[in-house]
Amino acid sequence: MKKRFTEQDDGIGVVAEINVTSLVDVAFTLLIIFMITAPILQGGIEIDLPEGASAPLSASDALVVSIDADGQIYLDDAPVTWEEFDASLSLALERFESEQVFLKADGDLALRQATRVMGRIFDAGGLLNIITDPDPGRRRP
């Protein structure tokens, strides 16, 4: 049998094993904190995308234009008005190395508003890509 206590010269027993209870408590606390904050840190504008034929996006440094259900326009998560959108779209395209523009439009958004944004992206010289959720009923070849 292994001894758990060692005696010193003064006769007081000393525990000769490591107590990891506090270490486990800290590890679980950090795990819970990361589990709660990870979805928050993903960022982006919450948009209910329409379903359609789609392919996975490549990780590229491109401009993302979002339009929520209320018609609010966002340039890379920053809300802009129509006047600001015209002025800042050209500047934003110059800032990115790619001319690719990804459009995330809410599925319930009126087509008229989405086409206005698409037209302005084309006028600024951007190459438009529309982001959709994959259609669950369609199978890819």
With strands numbered from the N-terminus, the spatial order across the biggest sheet is: 6-5-4-7-8
Give, in order, the helices and strands: EEHEEEEHEHEE
Report the sheet with the most strands, covering strand number, pairing sense and barrel closure: 5 strands, mixed
Radius of gyration: 27 Å
Tell the overall outline: elongated
Class from helix and strand fractions: alpha/beta
Name the beta content range: 15-25%
Give the helix level as a range of percent: 25-40%
How far apart, in Å, are the first and last alpha carbons?
A: 66 Å
Total of DSSP H or I helical runs spanning 4+ residues: 3
Residue windows where pLDDT falls under 50 for at least 5 positions: none
| Rounded average pLDDT | 78
Strand segment count: 9
Which tags fit this structure?
two-stranded antiparallel sheet; 9 strands; alpha/beta; 141 residues
Verbal overview:
- The chain is built from 3 helices and 9 strands.
- The chain is an alpha/beta fold.
- Strands 6-5-4-7-8 form a 5-stranded mixed sheet, covered by helices on one side. Strands 1-2 form a two-stranded antiparallel sheet. A two-stranded parallel sheet has the order 3-9.
- The longest helix is centred in the first third of the chain and has 21 residues, at 21-41.
- It starts with a strand and ends in a 7-residue tail after the last strand.
- The model has no long low-confidence stretch (mean pLDDT 78).
